[in-house]
Amino acid sequence: MRRLLHREGHRFRLHRPVPGMPRRTIDIAFPGVRVAVFLDGCFWHGCPQHATSPKANAEWWRQKLDRNMTRDRETTERLTEAGWTVLRFWEHEDPVTVAADIAAVVSSARGLRP
């Protein structure tokens, strides 16, 4: 994904702190145009297609994964309120398609044609 974006001339920052939210980071950030990209793992972030529930210690895991999803929503809300465009993709999505979607949003934010 990063290689595809870079090859197309898009420059970005990795693991940029989320403003006002300690210990949370943006996976791929375009700070100049305020575009935040998150690449969410299916297990850790509760993908509706691929998420699984561990059998051992099931209640603890359910609470942990629910907190992850809540934290994702809070992070998205905070960034949106601060004027950022937030893009979230699942790990199973096609990298070429995802990179094209990101590039289109970033180009649009810069006032360029994708």
TrEMBL record:
- Its GO biological process terms? mismatch repair
Q: Which GO terms describe its molecular function?
A: endonuclease activity; hydrolase activity
Which is an annotated Pfam family here? Answer: Vsr
Q: Which domain of life does this protein belong to? A: Bacteria
UniProt xrefs under InterPro entries:
DNA_mismatch_endonuc_vsr, Restrct_endonuc-II-like
The UniProt keyword set, sorted, is:
DNA damage, DNA repair, Endonuclease, Hydrolase, Nuclease
Family under the similarity heading: Belongs to the Vsr family.
Q: Output this protein's name.
A: Very short patch repair endonuclease
